[in-house]
Amino acid sequence: MPKAADAPTVSVRPGARKRNPLDAHLAKYKSVPFLLVGSGLSRRYLGLDDWEGLLRRLAGLTSKSFEEFRSLADNDFPTIATLISDELVKAWWSDPAFSDSRARYEEKITRRHGPLKAEVSRIIALAAPTFDGRSVKARELKLLRAATIDGVITTNYDRLMEDTFPTFHVFVGQDELLLADPQEVGEIYKIHGSASDPESIVLTREDYDEYKARNAYLAAKLLTIFVEHPVVILGYGLGDPDVIGIVAEIARLMTRANVGSLRGRLVFVQWNPEAKGMQLVETAMVVDQQLSVPIISVTVPDFLGVFASLSRTVRKFPARSLRRIKEYIHDLVLTTDLQGRLYAESIDVDVDVSKVDVVLGIGVQQHLIARLGYKALERDDLFKDVLADESQYDSAAVVNDTLPRLLSGGGRTPVFRYLRSAGYLTADGNLRPNAVVPDAVGRRVRLGITDYGPPPSMAPRAHYVASQVGNDLKRLLAEYQPWDVSTAIGLLPPERIDLRVLRRYLLDHQGDWHASLPRAICYFDYLMYGNLALRRRPRRAAAATA
């Protein structure tokens, strides 16, 4: 099978009267671009403030001036945000001037800087396009919506990118991206948080310190994007600390010799209304005193040419479909039940393979398991299997070979189906006295039902959601997003959870398994196969007992 970086092939649509230089540059790469988007685009299309403007607006909510905060913080913007927050919180919870904000956001606030971030979310929620439908900006956005890209990385809090690419899957904040399994196709990574979740926003000095402490892990996640895709950088200045921080961390993961492999892949677009057409030059971004990274600098008077170039790239599959293909391609390797799901045509010796659109190397489960053992299975395989009517795996092999590796890697993994089937469990979900299982598996079993409550940081929100639905599982699934479902479901009484309903919901939300629903899948696994006394009985049986 070809490497991911080699497929699908990208071409350029014919028919443009005059090719701009960016067309020719992007045509050099077989993968389609990613976008790295900063606040300049939000200012251009939504009329939002830059960082200093936002802080000035927030300072106006207090009795002190922005200049006073700036002097106390030595002009460090994250520290200014912290000082404004400390001043604002005194009034936010009691002053009638903030009553509307409290009504809208107080259930989402659990941390000290929450009121400040709630006001940021309120400001962003009020933003709207500042141009008419016939303007250059309207034409730019129309072209951007038609762009062929694999995804967006953004430090913005607003919804501009979600609204521009509505079929893309969104990951909010470092935690969601680090714990998920992104496919790098049809996705938006909001690495500084989102106004839809105020406490995810990276704004204060504490936020930035925490963000930087884990930035190397995020950079490792993004590294393959930067080495396999052209990355078009929009809405940042060359000296913007956010974009320098991202590029610097990725460069530090590479050797000095390998940094040169980024040459041409970083396309830094800068807006200059005085520019005479599109100007493209090779230059470098200095990320620290010892390191510079080669970039292509593109200066434009507007974004029409850039977005038109992005809209002219072609691939065989739309991003949403390609993301699904990448998610499920391993299912074809790990199952023999392909009837009705795969159309295959043999390639004979006289077929020109260069003219075949897609070539997949497909094996079967027995061949893979024989070669690699049950260590070949991944968490996604177990998610799918635990929701199936019957398991396709040898349970004892999963317990001894698969689960120790998956549990040691962090993240939630279903264990009880395999322990039950292998005969290791008592009826109440505990290990039998004579059961010998790997230590990591035993530790997970001993946690019992306490392992499915909400994490401390999400507990206030989870309790609020559970109280709103009145322990009604169907209301929880119908009215709340998967993240709320996963954190609140452990607060519902087990006897109120219809496992048939929960199973159907989880199967219908496969795109959210890694990002939002691992806890819910594992809770299903516990109720279905762990402590059997907690399983909800069918209504007829319950009525007969009564």
Provide structural commentary.
With 546 residues, the protein is of the alpha/beta class. The protein folds into 3 domains: 4-46 and 130-314; 51-125, no CATH class; 371-546, no CATH class. The protein is built from 27 helices and 10 strands. It has helices spanning 21-26, 39-46, 51-59, 66-72, 77-92, 99-105, 114-125, 136-145, 160-164, 173-179, 205-213, 215-228, 241-252, 256-259, 304-311, 319-333, 365-372, 379-386, 395-408, 416-421, 439-447, 459-469, 473-479, 482-488, 499-508, 518-530, 539-545; strands at residues 11-12, 34-37, 151-154, 169-172, 187-190, 231-234, 266-271, 279-288, 291-300, 313-314. The strands form 2 sheets. An 8-stranded mixed sheet has the order 4-5-3-2-6-7-9-8. It has a two-stranded antiparallel sheet with strand order 1-10. The longest helix is centred in the N-terminal third of the chain and has 16 residues, at 77-92. The protein is globular, with a radius of gyration of 26 Å.
Write the layout of secondary structure elements.
Elements: E1 11-12, H1 21-26, E2 34-37, H2 39-46, H3 51-59, H4 66-72, H5 77-92, H6 99-105, H7 114-125, H8 136-145, E3 151-154, H9 160-164, E4 169-172, H10 173-179, E5 187-190, H11 205-213, H12 215-228, E6 231-234, H13 241-252, H14 256-259, E7 266-271, E8 279-288, E9 291-300, H15 304-311, E10 313-314, H16 319-333, H17 365-372, H18 379-386, H19 395-408, H20 416-421, H21 439-447, H22 459-469, H23 473-479, H24 482-488, H25 499-508, H26 518-530, H27 539-545
